[in-house]
Structures are given as C-alpha cells and as structure tokens.
Amino acid sequence: MLSCNTQGMNEVDVNADLDGHLDSLLGVMRKEIEAYRELADAIEGEKGVLAKPSLESLNESNTRKETCILKIRILEELRTRVLGRIAAALGLDERNLHLQSLLPHAKAGLRQALRECQTELRSLLARINEENRRNRALLDASLSGVRTTRHFMENLIGSGSTYMGSGELNNGGLSGRIYSERG
C-alpha cells in the first residue's frame, strides 16, 4: 500500500516538474519573441542606413544587430537546456524533440500559449528573412554602382598604353575615320 502511494506521488512530481519545465519553455519563447522582434526592427531600420550611409550609422546599426543576435544565442542555449529537462522528464531523446511532440503533454492553456509563441516566432523569422532580402538588394545595387564608378575611374586614369608592342598607336580598336551617311 505504501509503495502504491509513493508511486502515485512520483507521477505527480513528474507532472509538476513537466508543467514547470513547460512553463519555463514558454517564458524562454516569449523572451525569444522580444529578441527577434528587436532584431526585425533593427534590420528594418537598416534600410534607412543603407539608403544614406555614414560610418557612424553603419557601426551603430551593426552593433544593435550584434547585440540582438547575442541575446538570441543566449536564449537558444537556455531553451536547449529547458528542452533537455523536458526530454528527461518524458524519457525522450532531446535531439529529436519538437514542440509538436511536447504539446500533447501540456495543459490546454499552456498548449495554446506555446502554439501562439511558435506562430509568432515563425512570423518574425519570415519578416526578418524578407527584410534581409530587401537590404541585400539595396547593398547589391549600391555595390554595382561602386564597381561601375571604379571601372570608369580606372579607365579614365589609366586607359592603357598609347603605343602597342609593335610601335603602332594603340587606338583601342577605333579606325579614326568619321563616317557619315545621309539618306
């Protein structure tokens, strides 16, 4: 009889631990949402910096993004530890642990909150990817302009030698004749 009560208490302890771990996971996911939202805002603001760049504004933008990324990495490590505890409580392999496999073990309200966090994180990641794509297009256009200007300047300053190796005048393939046709 005593062993039955002890066994029942262990199940209650495991469930209490699991609920606590799932609550911790929810808290970490909410903090991740804040960090990803901050990163998304930083990347969105970067568009203005790229349109009118200055060294100071570029450095400030990069520092802001690096800070966000550091927060996100710390939160990812924390989430990994919490998931390890959840996997241990459920007797599962944490390498193959996904939120979908945890949801059946969560209470209804907690399950819904975890789903909402997952949806919000997906939405933020899609926003970040889209903003990064737009910023990359701005950078590519800017680099193309810089390359064109550099090429023009190189041609203007050092247009090559005046004479070819044979001693003839290097005219760049032009014949030097003017041809006009009236019709």
Please explain how this structure is put together.
- This protein is mainly α.
- The protein has a single domain (2-157), classed as Methane Monooxygenase Hydroxylase, Chain G, domain 1.
- It is built from 4 helices and no strands.
- Helix 1 packs antiparallel against helix 2.
- The longest helix is centred in the first third of the chain and has 50 residues, at 2-51.
SSE diagram, text form:
Blueprint: H1 2-51, H2 55-90, H3 99-102, H4 108-157
Helix pairs in contact: 1-2, 1-4
Determine the structural class based on helices, strands and strand pairing: mainly alpha
Count the beta strands. Answer: 0
Q: Outline, from the CA principal axes?
A: elongated
The CATH class assignment is: Mainly Alpha
Radius of gyration: 31 Å
In the predicted model, the low-confidence regions spanning at least 5 consecutive residues are 1-13
Straight-line distance between termini: 115 Å
Beta-strand percentage?
under 5%
Could you say what the CATH topology is called? Methane Monooxygenase Hydroxylase, Chain G, domain 1
> Main sheet, how many strands, which sense, barrel?
none
Q: Outline of this structure?
A:
With 183 residues, this protein is mostly helical. It has four helices and no strands.
Key structural traits:
Methane Monooxygenase Hydroxylase, Chain G, domain 1; mainly alpha; 183 residues; disordered N terminus; 4 helices; elongated
